[in-house]
Amino acid sequence: MNRRWGTLQKILAGAAVYLLLEVFAMAWLGGRIGLGGVFLLLAGTAVLGAVLIRTRGRKAWEEMRVKMNAGEPPGHALLSGLCIFAGSLLLIFPGFIGDIIGLTLVIPVTNRFYRMSLYRWMEKLFRRGGGGGFGGPGGGPFIFLGRR
């Protein structure tokens, strides 16, 4: 029988693989630095994530608010804020692979890569008409300035 995987099955399979990789990473690192070291690293990154979500998240929120009050679109500030929020959450949740990804989402130099990738993905989605529910078959009232 030729059965294709649906989106939900792909997401669940990806989550299962990710969780297995996290368990193996913790076990490997636990063998190198011990259980106490693993616990301290996980606790430290959780605290770092909480601090970043309060400080950098608040700064990104303020930047978006200022831009919207000035009548400007909050585009890059919004995407940067999303990256900071996602990265901080990954730091808060236990797991070393998630911590590495979370750190790269939060660091300004690498944040630019994620922000631009997210922007291109969203632009492609809305140009294709995949903006469903945003005001019509063409993706709604979103206007992307720049390249066509």
What's a concise summary of this model?
This protein has 148 residues and is mainly α.
Give descriptors for this structure.
148 residues, mainly alpha
Structure characterization notes:
With 148 residues, the chain is mainly alpha-helical. It has one domain. The chain is built from four helices and no strands.
Q: Counting H and I runs of at least 4 residues, what is the number of helices?
A: 4
Mean pLDDT metric: 84
Termini separation comes to 43 Å
Q: Count of DSSP E strands? A: 0
Shape: flat
Question: What's the layout of helices and strands?
Answer:
Layout (H helix, E strand, L loop, with lengths): L6 H63 L5 H18 L3 H11 L1 H20 L21
Helix pairs in contact: 1-2, 1-3, 2-3, 2-4
